[in-house]
Amino acid sequence: MRTVTASNPLLLGCIADDFTGATDLANNLVRAGMRVVQTIGVPREPVTGVDAVVVALKSRTIPAAEAVSQSLEALRWLQSQGCRQFYFKVCSTFDSTAQGNIGPVAEALLEALGAPFCCVTPAFPENGRTVFKGHLFVGDVLLSDSGMRNHPLTPMTDANLVRVMQAQSRGRVGLIDHSVVRGGAAPIHARIQQLQAEGYRFAIVDAIADQDLMHLGRALADAPMMVAGSGVAIGLPQNHGLSTSHEAAALPKSQGARAIVSGSCSVATNKQVADFIQKGLPALAVDPLQIAAGRNIVEEALAWARPKLGSDPVLVYSSAPPESVHAVQQQLGVGDAGAMVEHALAAIAKGLVDAGVGELIVAGGETSGAAVQALGVQQLRIGPQIDPGVPWCHANATACGRNVHVALKSGNFGSTDFFTKSFRQLA
Ligand code: ADP
Questions:
Q1: What dotted CATH number matches 12-245?
Q2: 263 CB less than 6 Å from ligand 1?
């Protein structure tokens, strides 16, 4: 039963250190019964009629001092909206270094809130992230044995999160281990009090099943802040009498033509493109070398698409197998090729919405970022989940002067028929 109304202040204010992570968190909150808006950066306008706002920053790997200042700006805005509880969303693989940014940002937020302590956990068992005795597992292997040990920016070579968090924090880091967590909210709460009294600033919290996160959620009912992946979100709406409902995910009715713009070259996206083409639906490939050669690919793509727009989706894609991506990158350079393709696809996305597209899928994390910017989208109301981590959203595309339904799919997400089943779900 919903116990809040549109005029209530926000129940939860979230600060996410990247864009797709923000969507992942928002999606979990909606599934557990909260109405959620995700904003692109710190908004200038108030947000009303929702239970939680997720402010998406791009602060995961920027210098720590900048991450701190952006996060504090987000905190101040959330406080101005009446928030009393805050969620700092970090990566589910705890991406960070001894310089931060998780420790420095968390400590700055705690200080700004005048709070002495908070719980920290990237656990989300449903998605294969478990924490036991403070050690993070990714699927069946320790974080330090997973692919994350070779990450170019944040190599994770230690799975012991107490040590990892301690290396980047001034305050002491403790542990709430599974023998406490499995006992339920009361023992967790007691342990929090104890650690706080002993002068700890953080505790890594074990969780090996989603039920552990439900216990933790209850124990955090009166906590001013938490640092977590998207998992802890599943246990928070219950504290406000909210539970899973279609109401939280309800979006205004969609209208307009259907289109997909795909700049992701991941294995999953390449399969989705192939599936779409195999179904005989209209698809146009964009060749990065032609863009580089100065052809007006944006206008050509829009001229191709306009007469086809309607209830059958059209697809414009640069998605390609690794060999051709590699060949393009060798000719144009990795950075230039990426930026050029993103720019062209974002302009095509905007042109499609200008031409009447009201339901738009964008495939690719960076491609989505570029498209959202070109469309002038500043806020996304989060709707029903299509596949894990990818919800339909409703947004005002200010650059086009109209509202659109968008699904922003990062690389490897989504089933093979994602490009067709998503539209059926909206209908
Ligand atoms: P993902 O979520 O799968 O990583 P992104 O959109 O984040 O997808 O990244 C894909 C990158 O590859 C983008 O920078 C995009 O512009 C670039 N790209 C897309 N198609 C091609 C192509 N055919 N050749 C080279 N680079 C490409």
A1: 3.40.50.10840
A2: yes
